[in-house]
Design a protein that fits this description.
about 80 residues, alpha+beta, about 20% strand, globular
C-alpha cells in the first residue's frame, strides 16, 4: 500500500525531529516541543526549541521534488 503525501510528510517530520533530538544532546537544549501551537492561528507548530534564552521554531514541509539537506537541520 502506497503512502499518501500526508503520511510521507509525517514520516519526514519524524525523521527531522529525531535529528534535532539527537542534536539537543550536544547543544544542551533546555526543552523541545513537538506539534504544539503556541497561540491561536499559529502556523509554525512542527518543532520549537528552547535554548539559552532563545526560542527556535521550525516548520517542515515534505516534497518529492526536494531532498532534505544538511542546512535544514543545522542551526548555524
Amino acid at each position: 500500500m502506497a503512502l499518501n503525501a500526508a503520511h510521507k510528510g509525517y514520516i519526514y517530520q519524524d525523521l527531522v525531529t529525531a535529528c534535532f533530538f539527537a542534536q539537543s544532546i550536544t547543544h544542551n537544549y533546555e526543552s523541545i516541543m513537538v506539534d504544539k501551537k503556541l497561540f491561536k492561528g499559529d502556523s509554525l507548530d512542527d518543532l520549537t526549541i528552547f535554548t539559552r534564552g532563545k526560542t527556535i521554531r521550525k516548520q517542515f514541509k515534505y516534497s518529492q521534488s526536494r531532498i532534505l539537506e544538511l542546512k535544514d537541520i543545522k542551526d548555524e
